[in-house]
Design goal:
It contains 13 helices and twelve strands. With 414 residues, the protein is an alpha+beta fold.
């Protein structure tokens, strides 16, 4: 059998003909909470989508874990990979040579980070081979001194495939004429574009043997890059590898190199959640006003119920049922609407762009020209939980006021 407090509370939700205004305010309360939840879920999902998109683009060129020697150069890198070959979580490894240089072509000079890679091993740790605009990663041959530039870097230099690029190394040559910078001419054999300004405008790839000669690291490499099967386990795996290899090695993971960036994104998401949660708080004020009007309208009913033996606690529960049902309906409608909107936001935005012949994210300006979205159930549950909790809080004052209604005072003028 349904509890009396629940029965009366649900009964009061169905207003009489003369109380349609109260019913209208209740509907507005439900709509306000639902709209706030829809907006909050959609915004958080879009921010999750941007974070995922940027993370994927960063990890196109960044390995999950990097091992280097404490002195800056690593001999016999194969011994490192052999020591880790039994680790099932490591799915790929590749050596690399790193250096900072100046690139010159047709009077244009640009600073760049060079990375010497092995075309045979590099696809195991990065997706750069799939991001080539011109040429192929396998075109890098030892001794031919070919170079692959980021698309924006090549455009800044005014260079095209087949052009000669002069590479100025910080390594110095001592000759009878004095100390001279180390120069080497490379042939541009391709360009890549990964959609991240950091790489597209500042990274150059060359064969690892050519890079070792340029940086005077013959027989040595800067380190070994690793890829693991679960990228979010990189911090734990970094610690395990450090313990396994012992002293003399420096092990880093992708979360350290880009820690500030992802912390900023997470902080922005948190701030947006707090700000948009205030919309839920505003919508909850409608619940307060609705219940206050209901309490005022039902004073005589409350007095009768009190004389029939209903306790103040039961009276309070009656009106808490009303507010809870309003909050629950608004939360459920908002959850369904928010998930539906978040999952279809990209197609909706594209439809609006076609109708008004505009671009919200102009591909000529932004690397991300679509509106990505990723719905996380943790976010959905958090938003719905906060909404329901705030709705419950909003019922306390009106319900407490109803429980303090004095039967004699309420029935004096009836």
């Amino acid at each position: 059998m349904m509890p009396l407090e629940l029965f009366i509370g649900l009964r009061y939700l169905r207003a009489k003909k003369r109380n349609h205004f109260i019913s209208f305010i209740s509907s507005i309360s439900i709509f306000g909470i639902a709209l706030a939840i829809i907006l909050l879920i959609t915004v958080l999902s879009v921010m999750n989508g941007f974070q995922q998109e940027l993370r994927d683009r960063i990890l196109v060129m960044t390995s999950h874990v990097t091992i280097s020697a404490a002195n800056g150069s690593l001999r016999n890198w194969q011994t490192v990979t052999d020591a880790l070959k039994d680790d099932k979580e490591i799915t790929g490894s590749a050596p690399y040579v790193r250096g900072e240089v100046m690139l010159s072509h047709s009077g244009n000079v640009h600073a760049a980070l060079i990375r010497g890679v092995s075309p045979e091993h590099e696809p195991a740790v990065s997706a750069v081979a799939d991001k080539m605009k011109d040429g192929a990663l396998t075109d890098l041959k030892p001794g031919e001194f070919g170079i692959i530039l980021g698309h924006e870097l090549a455009r800044s230099l005014g260079a095209y495939p087949g052009d000669k690029i002069t590479v100025l190394s910080p390594q110095l040559n001592v000759s009878p004429a004095g100390v001279m910078p180390r120069l080497k001419r490379f042939t541009l054999i391709g360009t890549f574009e990964v959609g991240m300004h950091e790489f597209d405008s500042g990274l150059a790839l060359m064969h690892i043997d050519d890079a070792a000669k340029l940086m005077r690291m013959k027989g040595e490499v800067s380190g070994v890059r690793l890829r693991i099967d679960k990228l979010f386990d990189a911090r734990r795996k970094q610690y395990e590898i450090t313990q396994k290899l012992g002293a003399g090695f420096y092990v880093s993971d992708w979360t350290r190199r880009h820690a500030n960036f992802f912390r900023a994104v997470q902080m922005e998401k948190t701030v947006m959640f707090v700000i948009l949660s205030l919309i839920i708080a505003v919508a909850a004020f409608n619940i307060v006003s609705t219940l206050v009007m209901v309490v005022t309208d039902k004073e005589s009913d409350i007095a009768i119920l009190r004389t029939l033996g209903l306790s103040p606690t039961s009276i309070m529960q009656v009106f808490m049922v009303q507010g809870t049902v309003i909050g629950l309906l608004g939360t459920l409608i908002g959850m369904v609407g928010g998930i539906a909107l978040a999952n279809n936001i990209e197609s909706i935005v594209q439809f609006i762009e076609r109708q008004f012949d505009t671009h919200f994210l102009d591909p000529s300006i932004y690397y991300i020209s679509v509106l990505p979205s990723q719905v996380l159930w943790m976010d959905v549950m958090l938003v719905c939980g906060v909404s329901f909790f705030v709705s419950m809080l909003a019922t306390l004052y009106p319900a407490f006021r109803a429980s303090k209604t004095h039967p004699v005072e309420a029935l004096r003028y009836e």
